[in-house]
Write the structure tokens for this entry.
Amino acid sequence: MSSLAQENNAINLSQGFPEFNPPLALLEKVKEALEGGKNQYAPMPGILSLREILSMRIAQWRGFQANPITEITIVPGATAGLFVCIQALVHPGDEVILFDPSYDSYAPAVILAGGRPIRIALNPADFSMPWDRIEELINHKTKLILINTPHNPMGRIFSREDWDQLANLLSNSDAMVLSDEVYEHMVFDPYKHISVLEIPSLSNRSIAISSFGKTFHATGWKLGYICASETITTEIRKVYQFMAFSANTPMQWAAAEFMCEYPNYESSVKTLLQEKRDIFANAMRSSRFTLLPCDGAYFQIVEYSAISGLNDMEFAKEITTKHKVAGIPVSAFYQTSPPDQKLLRFCFAKHADTLLKSAEILCRL
Ligand SMILES: Cc1ncc(COP(=O)(O)O)c(C=O)c1O
């Protein structure tokens, strides 16, 4: 959709990256690191000062004590982190439970590891977890369950009750939880992000993954981290050593120093994105689209059955080419056959002008 947007000179609300820059102070830190000689390989698990500040912050945010030496690993982005974890933990014949719709890198990584993705559609009415179906499909071959909260594309977050349900279902199973939490700092009032690390009965058998790319509005930096028990981390690092060995050095130094100097930065991320969600939602009020709830991440799902009978792919193409606003058809996030829903995803991590201009066009449909 991004290339179609470009060809048609359309406003691009399709791909999930911000239109604005990382904080200036962070960019300054990168410059200092580059000029200060921080240009050679970082240690395999990441520079210690970044792991240390992360460990302090994870304790503060999640109430979870992660040992910076043995339980936190810096990786070149969350996608690489997910890939490494899946290669390390999934073996031929293992099953991995995934949900539809979901981020597209999960299933290919499972297949490359020789595992079998077991795809379960979220409840189509409200995109909640289909607990009965999950219970039916968990068995002795289930190695991993892949959770994503806040959720891309649906903007749902995992509640305490969701985690308790999952913990309950896993009480008689050895399955582990891989929790993709890249949007952890974008959870909107009145909700609060709850990490898998906060669930005592799961934290020992779980892996949490996050992305500095998302948190710092710097997706092109490809920097993320994995937090897991020492036993799990040891296995993950065996793969990581030969997959990338380490993540880029100057950005790690910059991230560590920035996090030390700006301890409240992460809460400003939520405020910024919540404001953007509201600007877009208010500007769309007079449109014929129905906006689905968005409790976290930076995507607004809209339902368009009052406007068109086209399927979502055709409709997304039509509004890109004819009306010059690009979004993503939600069916692209399904591998099971998607329900017959007319949903598009728009990314609202954009300047207010861009959001208002897009909404003005969309309100005319
Ligand atoms: C749910 C989810 N996980 C992971 C990623 C990738 O994160 P990174 O850019 O750090 O690889 C994305 C990016 O869009 C995402 O939406």
